[in-house]
Amino acid sequence: MAKLWGGRFKKKTSAAVDDFHSSISFDWRLYRYDIEGSIAHAEMLGRTGIITPEEAGAIVSGLEEVLADIENGRAEFSVEAEDIHMNVEQMLTEKIGVTAKKLHTARSRNDQVALDVRMFLRDEIDETVGLIDDLRKILVEMAEKHLYTVMPGYTHLQRAQPVTLAHHLMAYVQMFGRDRERLLECRRRVNVMPLGAGALAGTTFPLDPRSVADSLGFEEVAQNSLDAVSDRDFAVEFTAAASLIMVHLSRFCEEIILWSSTEFSFIELDDAYSTGSSMMPQKKNPDVAELIRGKAGRVFGDLAALLTMLKGLPLSYNKDMQEDKEALFDAVDTVKKCLSVFTPMLANIRVREENMLEAARGGFTNATDLADYLVRKGLPFREAHAVVGRAVLYCLQAGKPLERLSLEEFRQFSPLVEEDVYESISVQRCVEARKVLGGPSPESVREAIRRSGVKERT
Ligand code: ARG
Fold first, then answer.
1. pLDDT for residue 7
2. Whether 57 and 200 share a structural domain
3. Ligand 1 contacts CB of residue 109 (under 6 A)
4. pLDDT of 336-372, one tens digit each?
5. pTM value?
6. What is the CA(47)–ligand 1 centre distance, in A?
7. pLDDT at position 29 over 90
8. Residues sharing a CB contact under 8 Å with residue 377, sequence separation 6 or more, in sequence order
């Protein structure tokens, strides 16, 4: 088959090169955007009189038929036609003949591919935001159920101070809220229409890019033709935002893995979201969480690939940029798949509240509260810290928690301790007293739920 760009060539492309530089094996998935973009371009060419309205009409109905063919599995893509853009043009030519050859007037594949990828990513961002909204909604629903579920909060993975499961879950509502914002900010910069840039230097035809932008739902039109065909910042930005989503999912998965271990026993995964072992009959493994943790690496790799691909490129378009697609597609697919499986896995977890409470009671998570108690009785904090440290050491030797010391025992460490100490250092009380903005008390968490805006959105 003759190449669409074959005019100045004497020899046929080697088969190895056809195979090597063709992108149809992966960019076929842009077909819908490619065709929608071409329809908008052809209509504009008709409106501005660059081609006749009849020619524009023939092109548009031909493109609609091509779209239907592809969607019904009637079309076959060809490697020789290189990429989705030329495959579509070739199919159009087969349908409507010579008029098809007018479609590419005042356009290059360089601005065309930028358009297609932007349209694709815009849709994918909307889907990803939807998945994040689903996840945040589940997190808030679970938080509302667990406002009083006391568990240990950790630093250095050592029990530190008591918090609630609700507070812990709401930490992720914050993280995924920032992820959501990042995606929407990225979307603004994706939503810029590059057609009119041509190959790199615009065109001599009197185009009307604004009307193309309007018909395709773009907010803005690219302001510089060189930048329009060279810019892949938006793909980097999306992949960076996707990387952070994966970081957040991965940290959460790590906790789910730990919490479902016998050692923690804070949660039990639903059978539908765990797997067994082919050898050890007793096993129930958190494979889904592990796989999400593992897949984070793919997305970081995609980000590194995009940054590296771009960093040395002189303006404007270079073929290196064809490498943007597989990385971007992989990041999109991975983050969406992970979110889609993570949310129902989380929603179906069984929380073992009694074990969480037990763990919060052990490990001296109320030691700071005992020190604060002494401070309220007049002792400077540093001294209170030392007093409690000695009491903890005593308890470790005696094998009991602080709240099981008798008043006499307490008074060996400080005469300031009175009967009211027991109430002050119960773990429930420790949580309820942390009413500070952003703290774990049920009222602070209720306020955090309100401020998250998740409830209004749903
Ligand atoms: N398949 C190409 C890509 O993905 C389309 C643009 C090709 N342009 C060119 N001048 N070779 O980047």
1. 85
2. no
3. yes
4. 999 999 999 999 999 999 999 999 998 899 999 999 9
5. 0.94
6. 27
7. yes
8. 416, 417, 418
113 CB near ligand 1 (under 6 Å):
yes
| Per-residue buried b or exposed e for 227-237, using 16+ beta carbons within 10 Å of the residue's own CB | bbbbbbebbbb
The residue out of 358, 385, 405 marking a domain boundary is 358
Ligand 1 centre and the CA of 127: distance in Å? 26
Same domain, residue pair 343 and 420 = no
CATH code for the domain of 217: 1.20.200.10
191 shares its domain with 161: yes
Residue 10 lies in a domain: no
Ligand 1 site, residue 319, Cβ cutoff 6 A: yes
| Distance in Å, CA 452 to ligand 1 centroid | 43
**Residue among 17, 109, 309 to mutate when testing ligand 1 (max atoms within 8 A of CB):** 109
User: How many angstroms separate the alpha carbon of residue 317 from the centre of ligand 1?
Assistant: 8
Domain range for 325: 110-358
Q: Establish whether residue 424 lines the binding site of ligand 1, counting it when its CB lies within 6 angstroms of any ligand atom.
A: no
List residues with catalytic annotation: 156, 277
Predicted local distance difference test score (pLDDT) of residue 1: 67
Q: What is the pLDDT of residues 400-425, one digit of tens each?
A: 999 999 999 999 999 999 999 999 99
Q: Please report the pLDDT score of residue 363 as a whole number.
A: 87
Report pLDDT digits (tens) over 188-201. 999 999 999 999 99
